[in-house]
Amino acid sequence: MDTTLKPNPKYEVRSNVAGSSVKYDCLHCGVRLTSSLMEAGNYDHCPDCQTPMVVPGEKEKVVEAQKQLIEQKKREAAAQRKREGANEALAQKLADEARRARDLQLDRDPLREWIIYSVVIGLLLVFAAGRHLFNAIVTDTSGLCVVIFALFIFGVVLNFRAVKGLRSEFVCAAFLVKKLKSPRGFGEIVKAPPAGVFHQHIQDLVRIARHDPNVSQDSLMTLLYSKMMARAKIVDTLSGVLVSLGLIGTIVGLIVMTNGLSGTLDSLGESGDASHLMSGMRETMAGLGTAFYTTLVGAILGSIVLRVLNNVYASNVDHFVSYIASLTEVRITPRLRKNARDNLQEVVAGEIVE
C-alpha cells in the first residue's frame, strides 16, 4: 500500500441517527463516495475505478470519538446515580417497614447516642462557656469567630446525616437478620435489589462463591470499612480546620494588639492626645479579644464538640462492621461454602459420567 496517499481535502461530514458519515469525491474518477466517520484515516478503494485512497475526516473523527467518550461517561454516571438512588430508596423503604415492626431489635442505635451526646455537650457549653461564646461572636472584629461557627454548623450537619444514614444501615441489617430466620429468607435476599451495605455485602459474597468455594469476606470488610469511614474523615478534617482557624485568629489578634500598642506609644510620645490614647487602647483590647476568643471558639467547637460527635459516628461504624462481619461469618459464609462445594461435586460427578 502506498503510504504517500493523501485524502481528498474537500469533504463533508454529516450526522444522523445512524451516526456520522463523511462524503467526498474520488480523486481519480470523481464519483461521490460515502464512508463512516469512524473509517477516517483508513485506506480504501474506489468501488468504480478501484483507485486506492485514504478516507478523509480524521480530525472530525477524533472530535467525534471524544464526544462519544464524554457521552458514555455521562450515561454511566447517570446510571450509577440512578442505581444509588434506587438503592437508597429501597433501603429507606426497608427501614420504614422495619420501624413499623414491633419485634425488630436494633443491635445499636447511633442516632439516639448522637442525640444524647449532643444534648449533654450543648448543656455543658451553655452553662460553662455560653456567655463567652456569645461575646466572641459579638465582639470579635476579625470575623474569624463567625467563620468558625459557620464551619462548625456545616460539620455538625454532615455528621448528623452520616449518623442518620448509619442508623438506617442498622435497621436494614436487623430487618435482614429477621428475614434470614424464615425458610425462604436467604433466597429472597439474594434475588432482591440491594438495600443497604449489609445486603450488598451478602450479594457480593454470593457472586464470589460462584467462582471460589472457599469464599472469604476479609477484603470486602476492609473495603466496606474504608467506605463508611470516609464521612468521618471529612468531619475530622473540619475539626482540624476549626482549631487551625483559632490559632490563626490568635496571630491576627496579636498583630492587631501590636498595632494598637504602637498607636498608644505614638500618642504618648508626640502630643499626649487622650483621644488617640484611648483609640490605641481600644485597638489593643480588640486585638486581645480576637486572640483569646478565636482560640477559645476553635478549641471548644473543633477540638471538643465536633470531635466527640464524630467519634460517636466512628465508634458506631466500628461496631456495625464487626456486627455484620459476625453475622456473615455465622449465618452466611457457611451456607455459601456448603452450596459451592455441593455444586462443585455435582459438576465433577457429571464430568465423570460423561
UniProtKB/TrEMBL annotation:
It is found in: Cell membrane; Membrane. GO terms for cellular component: plasma membrane. This is MotA/TolQ/ExbB proton channel domain-containing protein. It comes from Novipirellula galeiformis. Keywords: Cell membrane, Coiled coil, Membrane, Protein transport, Transmembrane, Transmembrane helix, Transport. Belongs to the exbB/tolQ family. GO terms for biological process: protein transport. It is a multi-pass membrane protein. Residues 196-324 form the MotA/TolQ/ExbB proton channel domain. The chain crosses the membrane at residues 114-134, 140-160, 234-257, 285-306. Pfam families: MotA_ExbB (PF01618). It comes from the Bacteria. Its main location: membrane. Residues 62-107 form a coiled coil.
